[in-house]
């Protein structure tokens, strides 16, 4: 095992030698160094090298190995390194943002709550690049630290937020966290009928999808907004509402979904049939075939396929 000073000296020489070929540099050290030495090498690069190509490859290697020794340095880089230290052109600015997004994803894969304060700082900084902030929101959902819930709710509710994409990512994160405090803002947004929801349907789609991940069968307002969403102009909104209803404990869900097999969009009607199967299995499909008048012809083959699938699983 190389001592620390010798390792740093060797790294400096190799970084200079392989300046134009980061891949050759990493192939060399990966083949020669132990896991602990690699962790030390990656920390040195993050702290001392300004070449974005080297830094990008370093973060990828850290994410591959996930050595806890690298987490603090990743967090420090996210918080302390500034665009002006690396960027001389618009292209390099984009590369720097992409690097920080890669760092956020690597941090999230450690799933450590010690990273939550730094991620929340980035999320709440309105001056940060919106692409970075939306990656931070999703990272907070992935890590699963519920101390992030209040900040994520503020982002979702903020009508002055410059990026609807950031609000969408915050809604996704809240669904991942599964905290019932998210129900109130979700319902308020869906009930508001603001014009921007029609323009940016992806925010509505994400909120409805996230609602399906919350155990909110006691809140009748949720049932109301999901039922109303079944009539939305967007087929994806209708599909997400069907899925959220199928994941709920509302006793009305089955009947509401059954009606959607007559939807004018074939994807929606097929989605409704599959949801009925997921909720009640073979018997539910047999019942809908037996009892529903004017069963859509285009769904007959889909229904037969579901019944055949059930028989194949029984045989296995």
Key descriptive features of the protein:
0% strand; 316 residues; mainly alpha
Number of strands: 0
What portion of residues belong to β-strands? under 5%
Measured as a percent range, the helix fraction is over 70%
Overall radius of gyration = 25 Å
Termini separation comes to 54 Å
Number of helical segments?
Answer: 18
Description:
Helices cover 72% and strands 0% of the residues. It is built from 18 helices and no strands. With 316 residues, it is mostly helical. The termini are far apart. α6 (90-110) packs parallel to α8 (130-143).
Question: What is the gist of this entry?
Answer:
By secondary structure, the chain is mainly α. The chain has helices at 4-17, 22-32, 35-48, 52-65, 71-80, 90-110, 116-124, 130-143, 149-157, 164-177, 183-192, 195-199, 201-211, 220-229, 235-246, 253-259, 266-291, 300-315.
């Amino acid at each position: 095992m190389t001592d620390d000073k010798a390792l740093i000296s060797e790294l400096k020489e190799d970084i200079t030698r392989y300046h134009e070929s980061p891949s050759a540099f990493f192939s060399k050290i990966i083949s020669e160094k132990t896991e602990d030495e690699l962790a030390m090498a990656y920390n040195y690069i993050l702290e001392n090298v300004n070449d974005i190509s080297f830094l990008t490859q370093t973060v990828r290697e850290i994410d591959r190995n996930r050595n806890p020794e690298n987490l603090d340095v990743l967090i420090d880089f996210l918080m302390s390194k500034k665009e002006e230290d690396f960027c001389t052109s618009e292209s390099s600015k984009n590369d720097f943002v992409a690097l920080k997004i890669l760092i956020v994803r690597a941090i999230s894969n450690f799933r450590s709550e010690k990273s939550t304060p730094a991620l929340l700082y980035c999320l709440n900084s309105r001056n940060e690049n919106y692409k970075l902030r939306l990656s931070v929101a999703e990272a907070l959902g992935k890590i699963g630290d519920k101390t992030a819930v209040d900040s994520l709710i503020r982002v979702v509710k903020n009508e002055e937020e410059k990026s609807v994409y950031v609000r969408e990512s915050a809604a996704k994160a809240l669904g991942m966290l599964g905290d019932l405090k998210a129900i109130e803002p979700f319902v308020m947004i869906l009930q508001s009928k603001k014009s921007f929801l029609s323009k940016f349907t992806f925010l509505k789609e994400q909120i409805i999808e996230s609602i399906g991940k919350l155990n909110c069968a006691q809140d009748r307002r949720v049932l109301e907004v999901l039922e109303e969403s079944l009539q939305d102009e967007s087929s994806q909104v209708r599909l997400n509402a069907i899925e959220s209803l199928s994941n709920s404990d509302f006793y009305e869900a089955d009947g509401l979904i059954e009606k959607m097999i007559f939807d004018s969009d074939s994807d929606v009607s097929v989605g409704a049939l599959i949801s009925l199967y997921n909720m009640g299995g073979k018997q539910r499909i047999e019942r809908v075939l037996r009892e529903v008048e004017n069963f859509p012809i285009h769904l007959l083959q889909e229904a037969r396929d579901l019944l055949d699938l059930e028989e194949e699983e029984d045989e296995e």
